[in-house]
Amino acid sequence: MEFRQLGRTGERISTIGMGTWRMGVYASLAERAKQVQALRRGIELGCNMIDTAEMYADGRSEEVVAEAVKDIRKDVFIASKVSPSNLRHDDVIAACTRSLKRLQTSYIDLYQVHWPNPSIPIRDTMAAMEELVRDGKIKYIGVSNFSVPQTDEARDALSRSELASNQVEYSLVSRAVEANILPYCEREKLTLIAYTPIAKGKAPDSIPKSICVKYGVTPVQVMLNWVTRSESVVAIPKSADIKHMEENASSVSTRFSAEEYSSIGKR
To answer: What is the pLDDT of residues 33-43, one digit of tens each?
Structure first.
């Protein structure tokens, strides 16, 4: 597994992490166990970053994560997110407390604002985030789905901490962030955490078959390799299937040439 620095923190996280959207939604205990087993397998393969949120499955996603990291908490980097309805100062503190309880941990490595809420001053939110850092309940602060101006505003609102990351949708078929957000993250040394990086498994027909053959990779692996070609980007594909988890984890074992990345990214 390849590892990259989180923002300016010095923390090393896996280039391929694990998303957990819809984990915690299950029809049976056997299905829940499968979700846990997939996360455990990802950790075994070096995917040390798990991303979740209080919004996912009404908190049950965090409970699945808790079960997956039981007894190996120190080996895993847990990222979670506070919902946009909970961005007032006291609500942030309360939301984090609930997430800590569901995650069965004393700290969250990266706590992110899930979506901006224009009706709540970002300074109130960031003041609460810094209190959580001070109290040891979170280690790093991030945002998600923030534009460049919104990210600047969030950074300016922090008095003692650095913003570490911005989590946004990014894949071969969803490339809006390339216009402003990706260059901004590269310039300012923020980590761009790419969600839905394999476009829900819908690989575009434009992926050159010659690259798949040359490197012995699948179209999904090409998508993950391509989206993380910049040192500023890590990806968090979601998989509740062990075989798909193994496919994801091995996607960056070999890097392509600049010319190949260019050919993959041709529109």
So the answer is: 999 999 999 99
